């Protein structure tokens, strides 16, 4: 096995091992959460806190393993490209030599055969490129801890319809907690501004908290302002129909959830929590989506200022903005079905940048601060780009509002 192939094998093997360890940590995290639920059911809050701490540690372990596996996978992708290009270059050289000989003899049949082989080489290259791009960029979101241990216990109790004993909040443990799968949470904020916030207080709210209804945010530009990159028709339908559906869905779900909870309907409460998570995520993600878009006259498409902290971070980690865009587009292409891609800042890792993807309307949480959000649902592009979503991924960077991203990078 040649040097590059050997390196590629080792990288892929290591990434696979890390993913297995992450899956094991996720399983253990689920087990600890189940123990937490059982302890809460029995009224053993102190024991429940210990299990909750274990769940948090396993969540941190899982996230770190997945992040490392993702980085190794990215390196493997580059090595794979080098291996593929080396093979293609060798094949092309053979084709060119065959063409020279065919032209010298003016053998039309031979020239035709050589041209067929030449075209096949490009088809093989396209197929290889698409396969490796899909295989290496299908990275799911890394949801991470956010609230305190007692809030994790509140969340588990809320989902299971368990009435907790008073006095839980008297014991604070300074450890962050991972949200349950597909839950939505965000930074604590004043309730008076909740209707214009970047998202509702999702499943991580405490038992006594009152969920606030949300409404559509105001846009900073007209529907047609992003043309020709995103059509006015798409923006109008996207905003007035799709985003508004998530607003109405969330508001309806929290009303029904409160009613079901007051009646002690545990099963219905749990089912409605799923609707809250889905619609709340759709609301939250779209609020950020609109803010990180802008027409050219408002700075859309202009790269971050070269002396800004965000520009320096991009340069340090990705080498250039173009490289970051390439990485992001690759991960967008790897999304199976519908989802989102986020450029995030990890507050728990010294503010490093990362590109993560989520399925459906899941959103990033915890120490991951979203700087840029890109909608990969078909409703975001199909009327204009139809099934060529790669063109949409390229075009949207012409209207990305990097000034907004810079603000979020500094504030958070």
From TrEMBL:
Q: Which InterPro entries match?
A: Fe/Mn_Superoxide_Dismutase (IPR050265), Mn/Fe_SOD (IPR001189), Mn/Fe_SOD_BS (IPR019833), Mn/Fe_SOD_C (IPR019832), Mn/Fe_SOD_N (IPR019831), Mn/Fe_SOD_N_sf (IPR036324), Snf7_fam (IPR005024), SOD_C_sf (IPR036314)
What does the UniProt keyword field contain?
Antioxidant, Manganese, Metal-binding, Oxidoreductase
> Where is each Manganese/iron superoxide dismutase N-terminal domain found?
215-294
Q: Which reaction does it catalyse?
A: 2 superoxide + 2 H(+) = H2O2 + O2
Tell me which GO cellular component terms the UniProt record holds. mitochondrion
Signal sequence, renumbered to the chain: none
The reply on keyword Zinc-finger is no
Starting at the broadest rank, the lineage of the source organism is: Eukaryota, Fungi, Dikarya, Basidiomycota, Agaricomycotina
| GO BP annotations listed | vacuolar transport
Return the PANTHER family for the record.
SUPEROXIDE DISMUTASE 2, SUPEROXIDE DISMUTASE [MN], MITOCHONDRIAL
Which intervals hold domain Manganese/iron superoxide dismutase C-terminal?
308-408
> Which GO MF term does the entry hold, naming one?
manganese ion binding
Q: Which Gene3D superfamilies did the record assign?
A: 6.10.140.1230, Fe,Mn superoxide dismutase (SOD) domain (1.10.287.990), Iron/manganese superoxide dismutase, C-terminal domain (3.55.40.20)
What's the EC number here?
Answer: 1.15.1.1
Supply the name of the protein.
Superoxide dismutase [Mn], mitochondrial
Name the domain of life this protein comes from: Eukaryota
Family under the similarity heading: Belongs to the iron/manganese superoxide dismutase family.
Name the cofactor(s) required for activity, per the record: Mn(2+)
Pfam families named in the record: Snf7, Sod_Fe_C, Sod_Fe_N
